[in-house]
Amino acid sequence: MSVAKIIEISASSTKSFEDAARKGIREASKSLKNISGAWVKDQEVGVKDGEVTDYRVKLKVTFVID
């Protein structure tokens, strides 16, 4: 039987929401083992002077506990 834990992380990118999610998972995998999935809980953008400056995501990351 496996036990999994779910944590919430946030990440950002100047390119896209997809890039922000990829960066978030990449960074999380440096300290978490056995990541099995993630889902985007929320998306938002940073705005300055009427222009989008960055894309932000909140991710729910699931990983299996050894």
Description:
This protein is of the alpha+beta class and 66 residues long. Helix content is 18%, strand content 61%. The protein has 1 helix and 3 strands. The protein has one helix at 17-28; strands at residues 3-13, 35-48, 51-65. A 3-stranded antiparallel beta sheet has the order 1-3-2. The termini are close together. The model has no long low-confidence stretch (mean pLDDT 96).
Layout: helices, strands, pairs:
Layout: E1 3-13, H1 17-28, E2 35-48, E3 51-65
Antiparallel strand pairs: 1-3, 2-3
Poorly predicted residue ranges:
none
Strand percentage lies at: over 45%
* Order of strands in the sheet with most strands: 1-3-2
Task: Return the average pLDDT rounded to an integer.
Answer: 96
Q: Between the first and last Cα atoms, what is the distance in angstroms?
A: 11 Å
The main sheet comes to: 3 strands, antiparallel
How does the overall form come out from the CA principal axes?
elongated
* H/E element sequence: EHEE
Residues in helices, as a percent range: 10-25%
Rg estimate, integer Å? 14 Å
Number of helices: 1
Compute the number of strand runs: 3
Question: Structural class, judged by helices and strands?
Answer: alpha+beta
Question: What key phrases describe this protein's structure?
Answer:
66 residues; alpha+beta; 3-stranded antiparallel sheet; 1 helix
Give a quick summary of the entry:
This protein is an alpha+beta fold and 66 residues long. Helices cover 18% and strands 61% of the residues. The mean pLDDT is 96.
